[in-house]
Amino acid sequence: MTNLTNNFDEHQQPSITLQTGDCCGPECCADSGAPLGEAAIKAAVREHYSQVAQAGCGPSCCADLTEPLIDYGDVDAQIIIGANLGLGCGIPTAHARLQPGDIVLDLGSGAGIDVFIAARAVGPTGHVIGVDMTPEMIARARSNASSGAYTNVEFRLGEIEHLPVAAGTIDVVLSNCVINLVPDKRRVYAEIWRVLQPAARFCISDVVTYGAIPAAVRNDAELWAGCIAGAMDRTEYFQLVSAAGFEITVKSEVIYDAFKGADYGIASVTIEGRKTIRAA
């Protein structure tokens, strides 16, 4: 993984670490039928993560794609037990520069791993909110919070395109391999802009592509739930985020050679975005 500090330039050619793996090559993706609608995508994603919440993360088509990135290193093992389901594609908390007293929002908080890490960083004067659309994940996260005796966290059921959070109340937004699961990414970033305080920021890890994903992949519900089919082209993704009113800095990026036989590439990217004045 190579850390980058360049401000976003759509012509920038980043230095990228190649991550090896045998899974998630083009053979994973059989031809499929008609385009999936938003409701079908959400239902597939919710069902998949409901099962993960109840059973723990089992083998999936994209397990080898993300697992090498998720090394929480010296994080207290007690935080990780029960909360780390191996669903991320980066560690946004490592780049978020959280401070005591910060109010933090985690989008798609799952079982709570990044919420609990953030809670330690912001301390008793800070507060961390996790939002997830899967009731079973919310239940698991709340149970983990109770077991860990966290007093500065809460978990709210909701969709990240319609955040149950008041405008202008958040210092830092986090998210880890979640926004790719949402069909309307423009709406997600509009919501992030809405809830952040002036000049506040986000730090987000997500999956992007180099080149266009074939229709057969886009129309595969399992690959939507597996963090592949919903990924946007990197340049288009950054343009969308910039248009939403953010100044972007790339913090890290990893591209996987598991797709080298395909006409497109898959990468994990962690970006920071600072809220600016949005054009009318």
Walk me through what this model shows:
There is one protein chain. By secondary structure, the chain is α/β, with parallel strands linked by helices. It has one domain (2-275): 3-Layer(aba) Sandwich (Rossmann fold). 28% of the residues lie in helices and 24% in strands. It contains nine helices and ten strands. The protein has helices at 38-55, 63-66, 77-80, 113-122, 135-147, 185-195, 215-218, 221-225, 234-243, and strands at 2-3, 17-19, 103-107, 127-132, 153-157, 170-176, 196-210, 232-233, 246-256, 265-275. Helix 1 packs parallel to helix 5. Mean pLDDT is 81; it is low at 1-32 and 58-64.
List keywords for this structure.
10-stranded mixed β-sheet; 280 residues; Rossmann fold; globular; 24% strand; alpha/beta; disordered N terminus; 10 strands
The tally of helices reads 9
- What is the CATH level 1 assignment? Alpha Beta
* Poorly predicted runs: 1-32, 58-64
CATH hierarchy: architecture: 3-Layer(aba) Sandwich
What's the overall average pLDDT, rounded? 81
Question: How many domains is the backbone divided into?
Answer: 1
What is the CATH topology classification name? Rossmann fold
Shape: globular
Described by its quaternary structure, the protein is: single chain
Radius of gyration: 18 Å
Terminus-to-terminus distance: 37 Å
Sheet having the most strands: 10 strands, mixed
Number of strands: 10
> What is the CATH H-level superfamily?
Vaccinia Virus protein VP39
| Helicity range | 25-40%
User: How much of the residues is beta strand, in percent?
Assistant: 15-25%
Helix/strand structural class: alpha/beta
